[in-house]
Inverse folding.
């Protein structure tokens, strides 16, 4: 119910009160674990292995991602220069954070990490632009647009429960492919939803369907990654998944934002601009679905352990 409540607060009090309320909730929610952790006795641990430059690479990646994010806010030579600088910072650095072969989608772990980034980018792009479409183009209230987030959250949780319980016997790579195919469908629904004669509710359906797909994809990718990693490398590859998720979101949302800004500056109709953004998401989601086939490692037993 959080998104719906946030929408109501925005309409009644203003958007700043949403963030003020979140800050208060963070402080209150942090108090309990801090007290509990203070009661625990310290546990001796071995000294961690040297990060061998990964910390520095992570810093460069963060800077590059920030440059790309800023570049997406405009469409001129200055913003293009920021985009070029961001790409120049990212490309040589991500190879130190991700498994070898990630950028060329090598079968197994590299593809799992890459797909985590692409899938997250697709979903969070839809999560960014569907509410914009509903509010600015279809003139739906902020509160009703917020309910779309609630629906997506519930469908994500339901799919995560399905893959961890009733569907726990289904091989993980099949769940990844199924979820990726569902995400393709959600992008197609979003593209159709820009048509003025189509009910605005269809855009909300797109986001809810995308949430279901993510609920299948992300937990299954996590299980596959841990299953294909040596115990001493599980932390490293889990971190790679998280880094890919953040970076993928920045890159895809940034590209979609640049496309949106370009269409707006050209004076194209709103439906056309949103349609172009969602069509681009479709173009990205189809090869991502095909990549899901490369998460299966030949000769490795199918993973069916529950997750979630």
């Amino acid at each position: 119910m959080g998104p719906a409540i946030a929408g109501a607060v925005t309409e009644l009090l203003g958007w700043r009160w949403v963030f003020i309320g979140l800050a208060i909730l963070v402080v209150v929610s942090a108090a309990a674990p801090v007290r509990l952790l203070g009661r625990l006795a310290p546990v001796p641990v071995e000294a961690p292995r040297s990060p061998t430059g990964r910390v520095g690479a992570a810093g460069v990646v963060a800077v590059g991602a920030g440059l790309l994010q800023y570049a997406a806010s405009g469409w001129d030579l200055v913003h293009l220069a920021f985009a070029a600088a961001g790409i120049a910072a990212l490309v040589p650095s991500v190879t130190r954070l991700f498994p070898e072969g990630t950028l060329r989608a090598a079968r197994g772990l590299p593809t799992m990490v890459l797909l985590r980034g692409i899938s997250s980018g697709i979903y969070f792009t839809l999560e960014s632009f569907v509410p914009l479409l509903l509010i600015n183009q279809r003139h739906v209230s902020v509160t009703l647009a917020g309910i779309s987030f609630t629906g997506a959250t519930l469908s994500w949780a339901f799919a995560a429960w399905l893959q961890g319980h009733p569907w726990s016997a289904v091989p993980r790579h099949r769940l990844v492919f199924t979820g990726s195919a569902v995400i393709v469908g959600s992008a197609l629904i979003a593209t159709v939803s820009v048509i003025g004669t189509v009910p605005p509710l269809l855009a909300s359906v797109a986001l809810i369907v995308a949430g279901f797909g993510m609920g299948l994809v992300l937990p299954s990718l996590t299980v596959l990654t841990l299953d294909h990693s040596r115990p001493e490398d599980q932390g490293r590859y889990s971190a790679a998944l998280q880094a890919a998720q953040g970076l993928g979101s920045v890159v895809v949302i940034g590209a979609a934002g640049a496309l949106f800004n370009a269409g707006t500056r050209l004076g194209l109709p709103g439906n056309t601009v949103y349609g172009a953004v969602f069509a681009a998401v479709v173009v990205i989601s189809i090869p991502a679905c095909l990549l899901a086939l490369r998460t299966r490692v030949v000769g490795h037993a199918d993973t069916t352990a529950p997750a979630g």
Observations:
- Residues 234-265 form the longest helix (32 residues).
- Residues 2-14+101-295 form a domain with the Growth Hormone; Chain: A; fold (CATH 1.20.1250.20).
- The mean pLDDT is 86.
- The chain is about 75% helix and 0% strand.
